[in-house]
Recover the amino acids of this structure.
């Protein structure tokens, strides 16, 4: 989760600079922070749910970027 958080903050990650991308990127960063916290607390169930939420955020953002870059 540390690496995912660092990747999301990197400028090379940004493929779009619109309001929706900013929203998805912010959501991604918030979830990775929560995931880091749950992992440190060894809360596997919460980490699993956050991983799912993170994956869905990725899917939504990728779909958005695909739509605007056609």
């Amino acid at each position: 989760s540390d690496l995912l958080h660092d990747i999301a903050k990197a400028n090379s990650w940004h493929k779009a600079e619109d309001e929706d991308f900013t929203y998805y990127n912010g959501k991604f960063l918030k979830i990775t922070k929560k995931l880091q916290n749950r992992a440190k607390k060894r809360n596997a169930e919460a980490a699993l749910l956050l991983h799912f939420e993170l994956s869905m955020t990725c899917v939504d953002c990728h779909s958005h970027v695909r739509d605007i870059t056609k």
